[in-house]
Known about the structure:
Blueprint: E1 7-10, E2 13-16, E3 26-34, E4 38-45, E5 48-55, H1 61-80, E6 89-93, E7 98-103, H2 110-117, H3 124-143, E8 146-147, E9 156-158, E10 165-167, E11 174-175, E12 182-183, E13 207-208, H4 213-228, H5 238-247, H6 259-268, H7 279-293, H8 319-322, H9 334-338, H10 344-351
Helix pairs in contact: 3-4, 3-7, 4-6, 6-7
Catalytic activity: L-threonyl-[protein] + ATP = O-phospho-L-threonyl-[protein] + ADP + H(+); L-seryl-[protein] + ATP = O-phospho-L-seryl-[protein] + ADP + H(+)
Keywords: ATP-binding, Kinase, Magnesium, Metal-binding, Nucleotide-binding, Serine/threonine-protein kinase, Transferase
Active site: 150
Amino acid sequence: MGSGNGVYAVGSFDLDAKWLIDPKHLFVGPKIGEGAHAKVYEGKYKNQNVAVKIVNRGETPEEIARREARFAREVAMLSRVQHKNLVKFIGACKEPVMVIVTELLLGGTLRKYLFSMRPRCLDMPVAVGFALDIARATECLHSHGIIHRDLKPENLILTADHKTVKLADFGLAREESLTEMMTAETGTYRWMAPELYSTVTLRHGEKKHYNHKVDAYSFAIVLWELIHNKLPFEGMSNLQAAYAAAFKNVRPSAEDLPEDLALIVTSCWKEDPNDRPNFSQIIQMLMHYLSTIAPSKPAIPQRIFRSDNAVLPPESPGTSSLMATHNESGETPKADMEEKPKGFFFCFNMCC
């Protein structure tokens, strides 16, 4: 895996040695999230509290190849793009399993935070401030030729003080190329741009052209959600929402929005991608609108969504104490107490 020049091969790309984590120093704690192909845990790496994403490799050769390629893309992009509104990348390894380690953000997902506030809405300056965080993160990606392709509240994480939003999960991100044909129907249907569909039903895995403007559409839906604290296309399933947006040009209502804000939202979700603004323009429009409504320091909602998962203390003995099983009497089985495996390998076996 290593080479004399300090560059390590991970899948189909080279990973600089400074990003290669040592599994012996990685400890995994409680699970904090789960997707279709990966689980995320709170953990510790060299006394630093981290988020540990463990990717399921799959079973068939085709599935394994596809997930390894996706893992390789995500690590390559995370390792080269840094911004205060992007989740900070710490490192990765491919063996014994595919793992991505990032900073741990204790504010929870934007989805969970908004849900905890219902039926109340965010104060407008706060909603627009969060939108600015998201726009700045996406602008940074686009400036590096990267399309995120999966902007949605589940992939937006809050800091512990709930003052900042950071964009996470580069699993579907791709480098933009004028000649590249990319997989259609990528992302989550309710937030997906209409051009990801053709005028006929797409076959699974069919390729078609699109560009970074797909993120502008998804951003508009997220912004609408930030303002209203309602699920967009309420009453529709994910597929129904995508079909309505793609084939009937249906959008959530912007009638009750202030004129300047309505212009931002509706311009971002226009049917023709060429008519949508880029993120530099979106940021300028948001900043202008914020200046017309915000006091010098926007008030942050009082309700704080606290993480139910304890952060591992510096003196933590490791996963064996966190993941120990208990019998019906509540006692730790003797066999578990006698075994003292250390490091990531034990963690992974117990977690997964």
